[in-house]
């Protein structure tokens, strides 16, 4: 079981940097909520240029976050490899089937999630399935789905870079810093899972719930099953981002307004009454 190595000492400079980054992650989601509402209004008015601009802005923001992560590590008074996720992968298997099943369950769930996304991406070429999926997503989320290959490429790149950056922030900065404050992995996992759920504010309650659940599982895996190995969250969220990119490929050219329901023909008898067809 992984507990915080005594070698890590953030020092005053790294502590201030980490707390500043934490404040940004608390304040930014409500601001992004306002931004996405305005972006959806632009899309509803037929102006989609802001979608690609938002992806580009996210890339610049990710670059700034990576620089902050580097400053945090560089200014720490004392830091070891395990503190920032550079330990080699070594699975600490639990005793019993239940414990080992808990270790494997997040990866099984990720495989199911990826399969569903890839399947939805392929079926989205069918307008009936695509419209049904859009209704399940809700108009707010469906409005920002990629309308062409350019939007999908920028979206896939933005998601991949932002998730990689978020892994670095959460596991290289927040995790060791929170371990100094709490001294035990359990409250750290809970606090960071809640923070990562908060980061998806405005994407719908279902999305927040799914992302929070995934985050908690990956954090728990990092804390107890494969301690101090950054490869675990990088691989997990890399597969997640790839599955989302595959799902987005089937949405080219789709808008709610462009969908035409299938034509239904009603046959009338001699008296003008509808004829009931077999099986209906």
TrEMBL record:
* Record key words, sorted: Membrane, Transmembrane, Transmembrane helix
Q: Which domain of life is it from?
A: Bacteria
Kindly list the residue ranges recorded as spanning the membrane. 12-36, 57-77, 97-116, 213-240
Name-wise, this protein is Uncharacterized protein
| Taxonomy of the source species | Bacteria, Bacillati, Actinomycetota, Actinomycetes, Streptosporangiales
């Amino acid at each position: 079981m992984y507990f915080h190595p005594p070698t890590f000492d953030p020092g005053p400079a790294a502590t201030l940097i980490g707390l500043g980054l934490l404040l940004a992650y608390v304040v930014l989601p409500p601001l992004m909520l306002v931004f996405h509402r305005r972006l959806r209004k632009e899309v509803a008015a037929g102006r989609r240029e802001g979608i690609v601009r938002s992806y580009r802005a996210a890339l610049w923001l990710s670059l700034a976050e990576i620089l902050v992560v580097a400053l945090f590590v560089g200014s720490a008074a004392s830091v070891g490899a395990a503190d920032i996720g550079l330990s080699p992968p070594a699975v600490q298997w639990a005793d019993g089937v239940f414990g080992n099943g808990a270790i494997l369950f997040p990866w099984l769930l990720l495989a199911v999630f990826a399969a569903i996304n890839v399947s939805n991406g392929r079926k989205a070429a069918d307008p009936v399935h695509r419209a049904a999926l859009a209704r399940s997503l809700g108009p707010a989320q469906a409005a920002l789905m990629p309308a062409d290959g350019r939007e999908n490429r920028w979206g896939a790149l933005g998601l991949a870079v932002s998730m990689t950056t978020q892994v670095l922030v959460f596991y290289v900065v927040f995790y060791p810093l929170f371990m100094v404050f709490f001294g035990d992995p359990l409250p750290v996992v809970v606090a960071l899972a809640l923070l990562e759920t908060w980061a998806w504010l405005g994407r719908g309650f279902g999305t927040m719930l799914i992302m929070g659940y995934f985050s908690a599982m990956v954090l728990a895996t990092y804390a107890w099953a494969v301690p101090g190995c950054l490869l675990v969250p990088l691989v997990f969220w890399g597969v997640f981002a790839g599955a989302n990119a595959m799902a987005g490929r089937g949405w080219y050219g789709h808008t709610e307004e462009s969908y035409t329901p299938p034509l239904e023909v009603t046959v009338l008898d001699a008296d003008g009454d509808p004829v009931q067809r077999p099986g209906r």
